[in-house]
């Protein structure tokens, strides 16, 4: 009896979850308002506990003291 009740409860919960996923608008997720303004990440270069420089992400990490220099040289990620 407990197994049957558990299975029925799981079945109802699965349909509820499926219903909620179907209501979500996939187009709203694809058309995100997030704008990436920089490819550089802030890192600690000169002080251990202070993020005081900007670096290109990746294995060949090149860093600069100011964000503008980093943005000018680091390549943008492909869309």
Task: Give short descriptive properties of this protein.
single chain; 79 residues; mainly alpha; 2 domains; disulfide bond; ESF1_brassicaceae; Embryo surrounding factor 1 brassicaceae domain-containing protein; signal
Plain-language structure description:
By secondary structure, the protein is mainly alpha-helical. It is built from three helices and three strands. It has two domains: 1-31; 33-78, no CATH class. 43% of the residues lie in helices and 10% in strands. Strands 1-2-3 form a three-stranded antiparallel sheet, with helices on one face. The N and C termini lie far apart (54 Å). The mean pLDDT is 76.
Oligomer category? single chain
Using only C-alpha atoms, the radius of gyration works out to 24 Å
The residue-averaged pLDDT reads 76
- Assign the structural class, choosing from mainly alpha, mainly beta, alpha/beta, alpha+beta, or little secondary structure: mainly alpha
Pfam families: ESF1
Family: Belongs to the MEG family.
Signal peptide: 1-21
Organism: Brassica napus
Question: Quick gist of this model?
Answer:
This protein has 79 residues and is mostly helical.
Write the layout of secondary structure elements.
Layout: H1 2-23, H2 26-30, E1 41-43, E2 53-55, E3 63-64, H3 67-73
């Amino acid at each position: 009896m407990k197994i049957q009740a558990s299975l029925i409860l799981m079945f109802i919960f699965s349909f509820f979850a499926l219903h909620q996923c179907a209501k979500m608008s996939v187009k709203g997720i694809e058309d995100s308002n997030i704008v990436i303004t920089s490819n550089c990440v802030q890192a600690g270069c000169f002080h251990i506990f202070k993020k005081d420089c900007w670096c290109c992400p990746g294995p060949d990490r090149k860093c600069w003291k100011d964000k503008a220099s980093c943005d000018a040289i680091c390549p943008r990620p492909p869309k």
